[in-house]
Structures are given as structure tokens and as C-alpha cells.
Design a protein that fits this description.
The complex is a heterotrimer. By secondary structure, chain A is an all-alpha fold. Chain A has 8 helices and no strands. Chain A folds into 2 domains: about 80 residues; about 45 residues. Chain A is about 75% helix and about 0% strand. The longest helix of chain A has 22 residues. Chain B contains 4 helices and no strands. Chain B starts with a helix and ends with a helix. Classes of the chains: A mainly alpha, B mainly alpha, C mainly alpha. The interface between A and B is large, with 86 and 77 residues.
Chain lengths: ~180, ~110, ~150
């Protein structure tokens, strides 16, 4: 089967899974459904010729699901029925559908699937082996040609992790002393 | 073309969840869905039909125009890692809010202020 | 090793299976990191697999069992030290080659394990940083108790 057919199937599965995870009442089922959507994305990466991304997405999705379950499941495992505003929801759906119809015209201008416009990557693909000595070209892009991107990414990740430590820590030393 | 439209529809599902749901956990999940669709869209744009994965193989001389574009893959790799950090940060904030207000409902959080 | 907290965590079956699987997961993470320039993977995926092996141990044995063996302060500082070492690698490149984060080692022969200059070194630093950081986030989120300030 061609790649397109597989991707239609996986994307339809992901859309149905996302809607289900947003509409399910039980929060534990909702988190598990989002995990399944992420694994579908990993499968799609595998079909699109990106095994690096498939591996990373698979592993990160598992850790994400574990973090969300440990953070939330204990506190709100009971089935919660929040009442919804019907007019608000209808207005939101109408606006989003109009954006969707307009987007069809915009997306028609993009290069069609399977025929990308490749300029910079031609040079990387031709010279990566000789210039960086790395067999995996994605690694040679993230750690040699575009190493500043990775440095910024490590900084952002460090800041996000530091932020969650700061939010979650116990009382500051000074405040505890004053009590 | 249809694949791009389906991918954009996935993004709209995420926006729908973020603006209509009242549950903080559902909003976090909706932001995650938006991240998935953006990552998938970038990789869809880079795919070349019939191409091989961008890894050199010893003994095989693969021409450069027979491999998938590696640059969007590198950028998406960055984005996936940052998404997990942001999800953890949002989960920490949501737990703190739950501790202060005893609820995840955003309308009640506004009411109980002070 | 002796378990000082036998009543925490999951059942005996899970603990016995964990004893066989956790080091396999850890070694697989290290393999992914070291072969990052030869096969799919790299510092980020390998670091998260290493973190997942710790998460596996925490879920099966309870968090006190892990804290008995690994110092939390050491993990916290290891993460920061790895971040500093990445920048130091850049400064060494600036000193030896003239550009920040330039490749200051030889390229070596393609397709062998010891090749690609500084890419394996950076992969190891990134693995330590990402693994320790994400495990600590998991630990803090899991052990947070609402009644403590």
C-alpha cells in the first residue's frame, strides 16, 4: 500500500482519538486516550521516513502519560460532570468551521505531498558524511550544523524544569523562618 | 493536499478543546493535541515520495535526492522535547491551583479569588 | 541489596520482574546514546529511556527505595553540571578552533563508533541533563502533597 493510504488511516484515527479524549468524562480514560493519539503520531513519523522522531515521540509520550497520571489521577479519579455552556460551544464550532473552510484555499498553495522544495538540505545530504563524520544525518544536523538550536533548546528545557521545581517546592527558607 | 487539511483539522480540534472546555486538565491535553498536529504538519511538508530515511549506509551510495529532508526533522525533534517540559510545567501549575482552590474548574477559580 | 521499605510499591511479582528488566532498560538507553551518530536515537531519546528506567524502579519499589540509593541533591547538581559542560565544550571549541561550539576533535572514519568528533560527547552530556531533569520532575510531581505548603 502507498504511504498516503496509511497516513489517511492514522490521521483519521488521531482525529477521532483527540475528540474522544476531549469529550470523555473520566479523566484517567482521557489521559490514556491522549497517549494512544501520541503513539499514532509516532507511527505516522515511521511511515514518513523519520525513525529518529518516531523513537523520540514514542519515549516522550510514555513519560508524558506517566507524569500526567501521577499528577492528576489521584486527585480527580472520580467521574466529574462539568456543565457546559451550549451557546458558547455552538459559536466556537461555527467559527472554527469557517476557519477550516478558509484554510482549504490557503493549503492549496503549498507544494503537494511527496514533492518538497529542498534547497539547503541538498547540501547537507551531499556533504554531511564528509564534513561531520556522522552516519545519521539528522544527528549531524542537530549537533553540528545547527548546534545553536540545540543549545537554545537545552536552555528552554532547563528553564521549564526549573520553573516546575520552583512552583512545586515547599515553603521558601526565609518564610519558614519567619513563622 | 487532503493530508494537510486533515492535519489542520486536528489543530482545530485542539483549539476547540482549549477554548470551550472548563477543566484545566482538558485544556492541557488540548494544547498537547495542537503540538502533535504542528509537528506532523512540518514532517508532512518534508516528505519525498519513495525516498529513504536520512541515514548513510556503508557500501551503498545513495544520491542526495533520494533521501528525506532532515532539517524539519531536526526542528521537530527540538519541539517534541520542549513540549514535554511545558506539559510538566503546566501540570505543576495546575496542581498548585488545585491546592489553593480545591477545583480544576476555571470559572470557579475566578470566583473564589481573594 | 537489602530493601529497607518492603511494604511500599507494588506486589512481589512486579518487584521480581523489575529486578530483571530495569537494567536492560538502562543499558538500552546507554546503547541509544552511544550509537546516536550511527543509528536512530541520540541524547534526547536515550536520556528519556534512562529516566524511564528510574521511573520504572520508583513505580515498582516506592520512592524511598530509590532515595536510599541515589541522592536527590546529587541528581539535581548533576543536571546543572551537564548543562555547564555543554557550554564548556563550546568554549573549548572557541579556544581551539575560533568559533563557539566548533568541532575541535578529528572527524575519524565514517561508519565506526569512534567518529564524528564531538557529537558523541555532546550526546552523553545531553543524556545526563535530560534524563536527570525529567526524572526529578516526575519525582516532584509524584511526591507532592497538597497539605504541605
Amino acid at each position: 500500500m502507498p504511504v498516503d493510504i496509511w497516513l489517511y488511516f492514522i490521521l483519521g484515527f488521531m482525529i477521532i482519538g483527540s475528540i474522544a479524549s476531549l469529550e470523555i468524562k473520566n479523566i484517567l480514560s482521557s489521559i490514556i486516550t491522549i497517549g494512544v493519539v501520541g503513539l499514532g503520531l509516532s507511527l505516522a513519523f515511521l511511515f514518513l521516513g523519520a525513525p529518529d522522531l518516531a523513537l523520540v515521540q514514542f519515549v516522550f509520550e510514555i513519560l508524558c502519560v506517566i507524569i500526567l497520571i501521577r499528577a492528576f489521577a489521584k486527585r480527580s479519579i472520580e467521574v466529574r460532570a462539568l456543565r457546559r455552556d451550549v451557546p458558547e460551544t455552538i459559536v466556537a464550532i461555527i467559527i472554527l468551521l469557517s476557519i477550516f473552510v478558509l484554510s482549504i484555499f490557503a493549503l492549496a498553495d503549498l507544494p503537494s505531498f511527496g514533492k518538497p522544495i529542498v534547497r539547503v538540505a541538498e547540501r547537507y545530504l551531499a556533504n554531511a558524511g564528509a564534513e561531520t563524520g556522522s552516519q545519521n544525518i539528522v544527528t549531524s544536523v542537530i549537533l553540528n550544523y545547527r548546534i545553536y538550536d540545540t543549545l537554545g533548546e537545552v536552555t528552554v528545557l532547563f528553564t521549564a524544569i526549573l520553573g516546575s521545581f520552583t512552583v512545586l517546592r515547599k515553603l521558601g527558607r526565609k518564610k519558614r523562618h519567619a513563622e | 493536499m487532503i493530508l494537510y487539511i486533515m492535519c489542520f483539522f486536528l489543530f482545530l480540534v485542539g483549539i476547540y478543546g482549549a477554548i470551550t472546555k472548563r477543566d484545566l486538565i482538558k485544556i492541557i491535553l488540548a494544547i498537547g493535541i495542537m503540538g502533535y498536529s504542528v509537528n506532523l504538519f512540518l514532517v508532512l511538508l518534508a516528505y519525498r515520495s519513495g525516498a529513504l530515511i536520512p541515514i548513510l549506509v556503508e557500501g551503498l551510495n545513495i544520491p542526495p535526492n533520494m533521501m528525506v529532508d532532515p532539517i524539519p526533522q531536526a526542528l521537530v525533534l527540538t519541539s517534541i522535547v520542549i513540549e514535554l517540559g511545558i506539559t510538566a510545567l503546566m501540570a505543576a501549575l495546575a496542581i498548585r491551583i488545585y491546592q489553593k482552590y480545591d477545583t480544576f474548574d476555571i470559572t470557579k477559580i475566578r470566583r473564589l479569588q481573594g | 541489596m537489602q530493601n529497607n521499605f518492603p511494604n511500599e510499591g507494588m506486589s512481589v511479582i512486579v518487584k521480581t520482574i523489575t529486578r530483571f528488566t530495569v537494567w536492560l532498560i538502562f543499558l538500552y538507553g546507554l546503547y541509544i546514546v552511544i550509537h546516536g551518530h550511527l543509528s536512530p536515537g541520540g541524547g534526547f531519546a536515550g536520556g528519556v529511556i534512562v529516566a524511564l528506567s528510574y521511573v520504572h524502579l520508583t513505580l515498582a519499589y516506592g520512592k524511598n527505595f530509590v532515595l536510599d540509593r541515589i541522592n536527590k541533591f546529587a541528581m539535581n547538581s548533576l543536571e546543572a553540571i551537564a548543562a555547564i559542560l555543554i557550554v564548556l565544550t563550546g568554549i573549548v571549541g572557541l579556544w581551539l578552533v575560533g568559533r563557539f561550539l566548533a568541532n575541535f576533535l578529528g572527524i575519524g572514519t565514517l561508519y565506526t563508533l569512534l567518529s564524528a568528533g564531538y557529537i558523541p560527547i555532546l550526546n552523553i552530556f545531553i543524556c545526563v541533563k535530560v534524563g536527570m531533569g525529567l526524572y526529578l520532575v516526575f519525582y516532584y510531581l509524584a511526591s507532592f502533597k497538597p497539605q504541605e505548603g
